[in-house]
Amino acid sequence: MPKYIGAIRKPVKRANAERYLLIMLLSFAAAVILTRIYLQLTGFPQIGGGELHIAHMLWGGLLLFASTILMLTLANSWALSLSAILSGAGVGLFIDEVGKFITKTNDYFYPAAAPIIYAFFLLTVMLYLQIRRRESRDARSELYHAFENLGEAVDDDLDVYETANIQVRLERVVAAKDDYPDQALLAQALLDLLQSNQITLVEHQPTRWEKIAKSIKVFEDKYFKQPVHKIILVIGLGVFGVGSLIALAPVVLAIAAPNYLEQISQEIIATDLINNPAGLIWFATRLTLQGMVGLLLLGAALFLLIGRDQRGIALGYFGLLLYLLTVNLLVLYFDQFTTIIVTLIQFALFIGIIRYRQRFLDPQPLPVMHHQ
Predict the structure, then answer these.
(1) pTM of the model
(2) What mean pLDDT value characterizes the chain?
């Protein structure tokens, strides 16, 4: 007489979920940046004629539909990678036209559009970091991941490294037999099959990601030894620090000389950068925040220069984090997408700081961005 129990509905993180999210993030960023560059260079052409205008939002929707169809119909692991690329590009093309969605005049150049796109990207980055940190070790997760990896055996592409990984996962499930007896029985049967040597294994072929990671590591070790890596960080942090302090100069002068405040306010309003008093306050807030963060970045560069690497890396990390999470939202509001290259350099510098800590300092990880 079979026994019946209730199904377990607790969600399980997919194996390699962080990799698929990273692919989606890169595709998303590339779609927005390349679209804006292309439209700027070509004078914002329109597809269609008369009353018709085929906005690139529709192409984004088409890519999202295609990625959904792929995930729902194909079980192959490569389908997930392709879906991540298509969905990232689709979301990028879709959200690039957010200015049209939120304004009655369908204003593509609405000032708040760029900060909204950037904030959406940052939220996705935070999600990626949380998923990357959360490694599931419970028996159900291990069995799910083992099943996903066993798909390689169906395609006659299971190698010795993948087999070892599956065996470790199955052994953890077997060890949890008191809590998951049925899953443990299934895991033991699979483990016996793998250990029977009846499954043909292939020679390990590095994946594309492994090749990329190895190439980056070789490049780092050859061209970015510690002195070179440090001087690049010092220059980058110093340039952004000095630039941010220079941006703060008008605020300091306005406080010291009220006549200068009136003069600079008229000049800013005359450029159509700001058209109301509230905008002027936000602009001053942006410059003030830039200056404060600039002090952190300049201090980080000086600490690195005098050999206080731990303190310099910590200041640089938090300074760039503040810049990326707060200052850039205001910068993009006023300057729209003219600061894309600067933002990309900041992200690269931020990654450079993390890599310096991992390679040359205490191996303890830096704190990550938390989304409250």
Answers:
(1) 0.77
(2) 83
Q: What is the pLDDT of residues 319-364, one digit of tens each?
A: 999 999 888 888 887 776 667 888 889 999 999 999 999 889 865 4
Name all contacts of 97-104 with Cβ < 8 Å and 24+ positions apart: 97/55, 97/56, 97/57, 100/55, 100/57
Buried b (16+ CB within 10 A) or exposed e, 327-345: bbbbbbbbbbbebbeebee
User: Distance (Å, rounded) from C-alpha 162 to C-alpha 145?
Assistant: 11
In this prediction, residue 276 carries a pLDDT of 59
pLDDT at 369 over 80: no
pLDDT at 278 over 70: no
The whole-angstrom separation of Cα 300 and Cα 316 is 5
- Residues 6 or more apart whose CB falls under 8 angstroms from that of 277 comprise none
